[in-house]
Amino acid sequence: MSFNKPVKKEIKISTNETLGLKESPAVVNIKKNDNPLLFETTYDMIVFYSKVFELNSDIIYKKMEELIILDMNSWNSKNIINGNEYSSKEEAILKTINDIYKSPSKYNLNNKEITSTNGYELGDLKPEELVYKFSTVLNVNPEIALAIAYCECGYKLNSYNFVNKHNIGGIRGNGGFVRFKNEAYGIYRYVSMLKSGYGVNKDSGTDKIVSMSKKYCGGSQHWINVVTDYYNGLKNNGFESYYNKGKHDRSLNIPYLPKEISID
After folding, report:
1. Is 240 exposed, middle or buried (0-12, 13-18, 19+ CB in 10 A)?
2. What's the mean per-residue pLDDT of the chain?
3. What is the dihedral angle through the alpha carbons of 72, 75, 77, 79, rounded to the nearest 10 degrees?
4. For residue 156, what is the domain's CATH number?
5. What's the domain count of the chain?
6. Which of 131, 137, 219, 233 has the smallest number of CB atoms closer than 10 Å to its CB?
7. Which pLDDT belongs to residue 247?
């Protein structure tokens, strides 16, 4: 995937990286060694996450540039930005852009100026890739995240809620199932919910599936069984090989594949 390039600029943030533009495009494919989506530059990372929230990437880039320059040493040594420390620079960028999206006035910005006029631009990424990306950045077990998504939406991810509301996790609000602005944002909110609302982390396993079920689905044994089956399939066959069959062809016979269900 490549991004539109603004006027070239470079701000040094470490000895081997610039908060600027390289000529090569960003790398956004999942590697076979289970690394998350990768980016060539910090700039590409900022553009990607700006697009998740449908924000103007040029304005967000300038604001992130300001925040990083304020305390360059802390950024380089401890991933600290705007006074907050994160486990990685990517988490720092994601969480800070999320905060700008929620509270632009804190950053002397307003909703109108930060909103992109291009709409959603990440439609060529598979939902599974986005689940893996956000899970990895937020230190959530991606197998659990995708197993629950398959249970809630069906293995083809074709439930009404996901197709029409970008709701991959069956998330409810006061008015019923929540509608999210786009697919990537809905998946981000879902993975964030697993971490903050259910305590799912990168080391969580089948015990967590059981313990979270009471809050998630009223303790349904059927839900536990289906999610566990999907989880075992993902874990035993490899996350990427389990779903990555090309062009969303989900007809391949895969071990541990439970009966397809669709929960609307």
Report:
1. middle
2. 80
3. 180
4. 1.10.530.10
5. 2
6. 219
7. 36
